[in-house]
Every structure is written in structure tokens, then in C-alpha cells.
Amino acid sequence: EAGVVQSPRYKIIEKKQPVAFWCNPISGHNTLYWYLQNLGQGPELLIRYENEEAVDDSQLPKDRFSAERLKGVDSTLKIQPAELGDSAVYLCASSAVQGTQAFFGQGTRLTVV
Amino acid sequence: AQSVTQLGSHVSVSEGALVLLRCNYSSSVPPYLFWYVQYPNQGLQLLLKYTSAATLVKGINGFEAEFKKSETSFHLTKPSAHMSDAAEYFCAVSESSNTGKLIFGQGTTLQVKP
Predict the structure, then answer these.
(1) Which of residues 55-84 of A touch B (CB under 8 A)?
(2) What digits encode the pLDDT tens for the residues B86-109?
(3) Quick check: helix, strand or coil at residue B62?
């Protein structure tokens, strides 16, 4: 069974440019999470989906960040415009239902120059 | 609010030596506690979790952790370190059994010397 797949693995963009990350969760997993991991820090939750619904987006900076999960499967996280401080690893995770183990993807490492 | 403190951002041990990674938590409700491992350029992998059953939890790769409520600690141990254990380790806390909504510590990098 394939794990959580994220793309791209690495992305370098200039500040003020837009960027998007894609996540394909494990098949059948209803819950999907996006985490932000700054260098030398633990991950921090950005947003959590239950199927298509964003049930917890309190930590998502809505002025520049947006996310969607169409049809309750794949998800996209977007930043527009990107700032230097957005350089980090963006992790996606999924779980079958709330309360079960979450599986993490390899992450997308974003560098904003 | 919940929080996690990992004592020591870097720990170095010799191969075959005891591994001890420290984690203290703060929670106003009975917590659920987790240890994750992250290898270079990889996602996080669950090592073990405490969910109010036995206080001594055994995980994968020979790791275990003991929940001590009186000390608000959940330290990770392994009797004998292997070179393959070199990685970053994260302790995390949750208010529920939802392992997705986690609050992570800052991580401890484990170095294993031959």
C-alpha cells in the first residue's frame, strides 16, 4: 500500500511569487492534515480536514495561505505571495478516522529567496 | 494549554550504549503522548504512544517509554543504541486519541558514534 505522497519534494521560489503543494493521502483515509515544520522545530498543525470539510484551520495564516481538499481525497496547500519566512518543510499526514494513527508524507521543502 | 519540552536538542551516545531522550509535558487534562522519529529527508514515523493504558509503553525498533504522571514526563529509552538509530526524535502530546492534532516538542537529534 502506498503511503502519503507529496509533491514536489523541493521547491525554490522568489519572494512574492505563488507556490502550491500537493498531497495524496493513503487510500480510504478521511482525515488529512497539513503541518509546517520550521528548521530545528517540531511540526505545527496548519489545517485539518475531515473529508472535504476543514474542521480546524485556526493556525492557518489566511491572508496568504489557502488550502482545499476537493472530493475529500487529494489536497492542495497554496501560498500567495510567499515571504522569506515561509521557508520551511510542509508536511501532509492522513488517518483513517479521527482517533487513529496518522501517517506522514516525506514533506515538501520550500526555500524562498 | 498543552506544551511539550524536550530536554537537550542534541544527544550523542556510543553504539551499544543506553539511549535516553527526555520529554516533559504540560496538560490540563489526561494526555495522550507520542514519540516520533524522523530520518533525514523523511516524514515522521510513529515509534510508540501512551493512551492511558499501561504506563510502560513498548514501541518499534526496541524503544520504550514510561509515563510518569508525578513527574509529568515521558522519557524515551533504548537499552543498546544502533548506528541506524541516528535520527531526530519528537515527543508530542494530544488531548484526545486523535494522533493528528498533535503538539510537538522541538526535537532531539540523536547521534550514534561507532
Answers:
(1) 56
(2) 999 999 988 765 556 788 999 999
(3) helix
